[in-house]
UniProtKB/TrEMBL annotation:
GO terms for molecular function: RNA binding; rRNA (guanine) methyltransferase activity. It comes from Palpitomonas bilix. Coiled coil: none annotated. Signal peptide: none annotated. It comes from the Eukaryota. Residues 23-172 form the tRNA/rRNA methyltransferase SpoU type domain. Keywords: Methyltransferase, rRNA processing, S-adenosyl-L-methionine, Transferase. Belongs to the class IV-like SAM-binding methyltransferase superfamily. RNA methyltransferase TrmH family. This is tRNA/rRNA methyltransferase SpoU type domain-containing protein. InterPro entries: Alpha/beta_knot_MTases, MRM1, MRM1_MeTrfase_dom, SpoU_MeTrfase, tRNA_m1G_MTases_N.
């Protein structure tokens, strides 16, 4: 096995096979290559176990994505999914929980104690830059989580969401490092 036990312990402190939480990202129609690259970079940096990409309307893995990912694209496990809802169903049948990032009223703040305990095997779904997750993808989610806006942003009501790559970084940080 590449890296060996010492390298695994240096990177994450604990061997993933010893029950450490695993989070896999599933990206539904993320079409901007710079966003995709930034998501891959954050996912790799924060320790995500891999990335699932919807084949439809997703940015192709390209030199632009690679550059934006700072090389993470070349080392991460990335799987293209012809039918993302079906893949999410299969993940649930294999014992994974599926959570979706959503700004809707039914979503629970990721910082809320009500999301605890965070499952050891979790697929986190993020939707496209403009419209979020497709309904058929959202229906496969066991729970929906959101990043609450700060007080000033709530008052001003000017900006109602974050860039998908920023959201990915914040959510992964909460789910993997806390």
């Amino acid at each position: 096995e590449e890296g060996g036990e010492e390298e695994r312990k240096e990177r994450g402190g604990k061997d993933r096979r010893e029950g450490q939480r695993r989070v896999i990202l599933a990206l539904d129609e993320v079409s901007d290559p710079m966003n995709l690259g930034a998501i891959l970079r954050s996912a790799h940096f924060l320790g995500a176990g891999g990335v699932m990409l919807s084949e439809k309307n997703c940015a192709p893995l390209s030199a632009i994505v690679s550059k934006a990912s700072a090389g993470a694209m070349e080392v991460m496990d990335i799987v293209k999914c012809r039918n993302l809802p079906q893949e999410l169903q299969a993940a649930k049948q294999a014992g994974w929980e599926v959570w979706g990032a959503d700004a809707g009223k039914h979503a629970v703040p990721v910082s809320s104690p009500s999301i605890l305990p965070i499952p050891d095997r979790l697929v986190l779904v993020l939707g496209s830059e403009g419209s979020g997750m497709r309904k058929l993808v959202s229906r496969e989610c066991d729970k929906h989580v959101m990043i609450p806006a700060g007080r000033e942003a709530r008052k001003a009501r000017l900006v109602d969401s974050l860039n998908v790559s920023v959201s990915a970084g914040i959510l992964l940080s909460h789910l993997l490092l806390h």
